[in-house]
Write a structure and sequence with these properties.
Oligomer: heterodimer
Mean pLDDT of chain A: 92
Shape of chain B: globular
Radius of gyration of chain A: 13 Å
Structural class of chain B: mainly beta
Number of helices of chain A: 0
Low-confidence stretches of chain B: none
Helix content of chain B: under 10%
């Protein structure tokens, strides 16, 4: 158990809908990262927040947005969903803002499996 | 730009065989980190190892060992005496160690199937 929690575990919705995925980082971690894992794209970084502020942005679609709240939990909002958005969405957390030092090692949550029908 | 290549899409072995998972990377950074993660059928990503680019010592942890060769830009992972519980998808990843962007780039993963 990494200490990172994600809800819900599974989500089934229809095209055009909007969903919110939630992530609680490990206790004490200030950074939250979101990744998308799909069969055709592999594991892709979406966005990172550090202590409430956006820190880095990856291949995140404009239909997607995220935020980190004062209690450090984060939400990933996916709107106007398309079939191709079906994927496993991971959240990870680290103590620091980034880098490969020990304080920035990323711990991954169990993921949310999103199915868009 | 960074790139991680795991050329083996799927490997199938019989229990107790040794198996090596290949990872080749490309980067222009002079300092970087390399990682291996395991994704068992349950889906979570489990951290296995982190290696600094300036440390080319091989590492052994139980049945797991890692061979880092900067000259060939490779960071291969060997499982000795494989077990059924080793069946998983294994990801190699690379991140810069300086410059402000530390987001890892992942390979496409190698699916390891260990048969009893």
């Amino acid at each position: 158990d990494s200490g990172v929690t994600q809800t819900p575990k599974h989500l089934i919705t229809a095209t055009g809908q909007r969903v919110t995925l939630r992530c609680s980082p490990r206790s004490g971690d200030l950074s939250v990262y979101w990744y998308q894992q799909s069969l055709d794209q592999g594991l892709q970084f979406l966005i990172q927040y550090y202590n409430g502020e956006e820190r880095a942005k990856g291949n995140i679609l404009e239909r997607f947005s995220a935020q980190q709240f004062p209690d450090l939990h984060s939400e990933l909002n996916l709107s106007s969903l398309e079939l191709g958005d079906s994927a496993l969405y991971f959240c990870a957390s680290s103590l620091g803002p980034g880098g490969g030092t020990e304080s920035n090692e990323q711990f991954f949550g169990p993921g949310t499996r999103l199915t868009v029908l | 730009a960074q790139k991680v290549t795991q050329a083996q899409t799927e490997i199938s072995v019989v229990e107790k065989e040794d198996v090596t998972l290949d990872c080749v990377y490309e980067t222009r950074d002079t300092t970087y980190y390399l990682f291996w993660y395991k994704q068992p059928p349950s889906g979570e990503l489990v951290f296995l190892i982190r290696r600094n680019s300036f440390d080319e010592q091989n590492e052994i942890s139980g049945r797991y060992s890692w061979n880092f060769q900067k000259s060939t830009s490779s960071f291969n992972f060997t499982i000795t005496a494989s077990q059924v519980v080793d069946s998983a998808v294994y990801f190699c990843a690379l991140s810069p160690a300086s410059g402000g962007s530390y987001i890892p780039t992942f390979g496409r993963g190698t699916s390891l199937i260990v048969h009893p």
